[in-house]
Fold this protein.
Amino acid sequence: MTATVAAEVWMRPEDSVSGMLLGVPVFVVIYAGLERLVDHGLKKRGLQTETAEYMDLDYIDDATMQPVRLPQEVPDESLKDSKDDSAK
């Protein structure tokens, strides 16, 4: 089957609607199942399940199972815009 024939068969309007009607719910079921599986694994290890808890996280300490945050970056003073007082 050539690519052109395959594209015509794949892109028929009646197939795209039925594909959406079946594809979207199937994707939702797969996504929800994976989410439950990941949440279960995190809870089993005593970790947070909320995504926001993992923002700015460097790693989780294996010994204490506590999150270690990324160090806060301090802006470099040499990169700041200095005011040029010579152009008055």
Q: What stands out?
A: The longest strand covers residues 57-60. DSSP finds two helices and two strands in the chain.
